[in-house]
Specification:
61% helix; mainly alpha; single chain
Amino acid sequence: MDKNLKLLIKSIIDSPVWVQEAILHDIKNNLENIIPNPLDTNEADVYALYVPELTFKGRKEIETHEHGHELNVYKFLSAVNEKLRVVDITLRNFWTLSECSRYLSFCIKNEYVKKPESIYVNASIFYLGNEIRLGEYVKRVNMINVDQLEAALRKQKELNTDAHSYKQLGSVLIELGYIVPDDIKKILQIKSESEKRYMPTLDLSKSADAGGVNYNEMQSKMEKLTKENALLKEKLRAIFNIQSKNKAQ
């Protein structure tokens, strides 16, 4: 797992249960604006959690670099060889999800990586990697069928005869009643989000938070104070014992 992601998750897990519960609901509410019922999604269909699997050809390419691909392809294949998830591969290399998807789709097409079993993961790889467009994506995830896609493309062509206006396919799919507006909005938002690079704003191992508190430093100080407190107690106990003996004499 990526270091920054691991630290972020650990900071949440180490917090009190009531804080974790509040964070869970905040994240759930935010995700529901993008993905319907996010916590009900089958884990195997969550693209970010997908663990790509090398083929024999892929392992050989890592060893030999026979085809002389660009460096990032070999970085990707090496990460796959470590059995990392897509999210971890993306963060490790400071890529966007779209960039990672392009390398993954390239490796699948070249038979270096096995094709995923999930139709949602497979479609997401090629859609976010800019290998397929919206219409093909919704067809691959069974939101529409082939006939509906062809009808929508014909309708789009008819509507776009006017050079001064252009109708997006998503709008045409909505007008034809094939897909509801919220679904198109969410798909396009996920596509937009995939172009963003994760910029960690909190590194618990190095940086202070917004209030100037360094958590590692704070923990170190607490441990030091605990030890000093224990020593002080021992000294007080020794002094008390000496006084008790003097009184007894």
